[in-house]
From TrEMBL:
Phylogenetic lineage: Bacteria, Bacillati, Bacillota, Erysipelotrichia, Erysipelotrichales
Gene Ontology MF, one: DNA binding
Domain HTH marR-type: 1-141
Family annotation (InterPro entries): HTH_MarR-typ, Tscrpt_reg_MarR-type_CS, WH-like_DNA-bd_sf, WH_DNA-bd_sf
SUPFAM superfamilies assigned to the protein according to its UniProt record, in alphabetical order: Winged helix' DNA-binding domain
Pfam assignment, any one: MarR
Keywords from the UniProt entry: DNA-binding, Transcription, Transcription regulation
Keyword Iron set for record: no
Name of the protein in its database record: MarR family transcriptional regulator
Organism: Stecheria intestinalis
Length: 157
């Protein structure tokens, strides 16, 4: 098998492909476990984190199409989870926030996720979890430096 040197480390040709495949499978599994529409959880998390946010800012953070976000927000509004209001200072902007019911659902989701997170990584020792986290941070920092536009959430947070 062909080996290439990358930043002083030997790298087999199939290694990146295998790593990406494993990461995709992990992402698929995490989405499957949620049971809800994945975007809904992300919207609720961002609204919990920022309080109120414009629809345009939310679209940039989540990196989804305007039509997809509008459809998702309409469903969430119909379910009583969010409210949309015109910004009184700029009537062109729509400001989104969680309703009291939405805050309760987000809180329950947060508690559930905390329990699930413990379970997800229970097959790894604390040392292995720390090492995995360290390696993922190295990757993310490198990717962020090369493609800052891919991390719009960082701009606001």
């Amino acid at each position: 098998m062909e080996e290439e040197r990358h930043q002083g480390h030997p790298m087999k040709e199939e290694s990146p492909r295998n790593l990406l495949h494993a990461m995709c499978l992990c992402g698929d599994f995490l989405s499957y476990r949620r049971g809800q529409r994945p975007g809904q959880n992300r919207v609720m998390l961002m609204l919990h984190r920022y309080g109120s946010i414009t629809q345009k800012e939310l679209q940039e953070i989540l990196q989804i199409q305007q039509g997809s976000l509008s459809e998702l927000l309409s469903e969430m509004e119909s379910s009583g989870l969010i409210e949309r209001k015109r910004n009184p200072e700029d009537r062109r902007q729509v400001v989104i926030s969680l309703t009291p019911e939405g805050k309760e659902v987000e809180h329950a989701n947060h508690q559930l996720v905390a329990r699930e997170n413990m379970e997800l990584f229970s097959s790894l020792s604390q040392e292995e979890q720390d090492e995995l986290y360290r390696m993922l941070r190295v990757l993310l920092e490198d990717w962020k430096a090369k493609n800052p536009q891919a991390f719009p959430e960082e701009k606001r947070g």
